[in-house]
């Protein structure tokens, strides 16, 4: 879910002709679905345009996820998990993968260090574009020497690369 904070800038002089062009563009290219949606869309823009300088409004958007893409990613994770030798439970493996891919938040620890808390990949929390970025980052992380050493300690570096590339090839990665 994308969160956007808008802030009204200092007043700008716009003519009635400018306003008409803006309305034609805003409501002509994209509009609300149905009468109710059209009213909500116009109300949103009217409220935004009525803001005083310095006032803010926060918008939350949600772009639907593509189900097959999520399933492909989860199948890839499962295939890597089943082939590796380090993690005994899938949840631990997923947390490690999320942190390795940078899909986490870092917080101060109780003794002065920092620790990662993996972010969610649920449909409600992660839009399609962000899911694609996470997938890309996860694949890149799985190709690192660190990931290979973690997952297959007994294999040589070349065999580790062969192992992960064989798995990823099955998912067109």
Specify the overall morphology: elongated
From the N-terminal CA to the C-terminal CA, the straight-line distance is 26 Å
Strand order of the largest sheet: 1-2
Q: In sequence order, what are the helices and strands, one letter per element?
A: EHHEHHEEHHH
Q: Quick one: how many beta strands?
A: 4
Major sheet details? 2 strands, antiparallel
- The domain tally reads 2
- The percentage of residues in β strands lies in 5-15%
The number of helical elements comes to 7
Structure, described:
It is a single chain. This protein is α+β, with helices and mostly antiparallel strands and 173 residues long. It has two domains: 2-61, no CATH class; 67-169, no CATH class. It has seven helices and four strands, in the order E-H-H-E-H-H-E-E-H-H-H. It has helices at 16-29, 34-49, 67-83, 90-100, 128-142, 145-151, 157-169; strands at 2-7, 56-61, 104-108, 114-118. The chain has a two-stranded antiparallel sheet. A hairpin with a 5-residue loop joins strand 3 (104-108) and strand 4. Helix 6 crosses helix 7. The chain is elongated, with a radius of gyration of 23 Å. The two termini are 26 Å apart. 11% of the residues are buried. The model has no long low-confidence stretch (mean pLDDT 91).
Topology record:
Blueprint: E1 2-7, H1 16-29, H2 34-49, E2 56-61, H3 67-83, H4 90-100, E3 104-108, E4 114-118, H5 128-142, H6 145-151, H7 157-169
Antiparallel strand pairs: 1-2, 3-4
Helix pairs in contact: 6-7
């Amino acid at each position: 879910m994308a969160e956007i904070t808008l802030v009204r800038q200092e007043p700008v002089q716009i003519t009635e002709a400018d306003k008409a062009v803006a309305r034609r563009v805003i409501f002509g290219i994209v509009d609300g679905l149905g009468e109710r949606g059209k009213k909500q869309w116009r109300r949103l823009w009217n409220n935004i345009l009525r803001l005083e300088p310095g006032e803010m409004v926060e918008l939350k958007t949600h772009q639907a996820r593509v189900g097959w893409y999520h399933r492909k990613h989860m199948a890839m994770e499962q295939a890597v998990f089943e082939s590796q030798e380090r993690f005994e439970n899938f949840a631990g493996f997923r947390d490690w993968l999320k942190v390795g891919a940078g899909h986490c938040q870092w917080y101060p620890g109780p003794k002065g260090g920092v620790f990662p808390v993996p972010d969610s990949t649920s449909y409600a929390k992660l839009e399609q574009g962000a899911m694609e970025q996470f997938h890309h980052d996860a694949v890149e992380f799985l190709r690192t020497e660190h990931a290979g050493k973690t997952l297959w300690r007994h294999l040589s570096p070349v065999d580790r690369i062969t192992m992960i590339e064989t798995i990823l090839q099955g998912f067109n990665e």
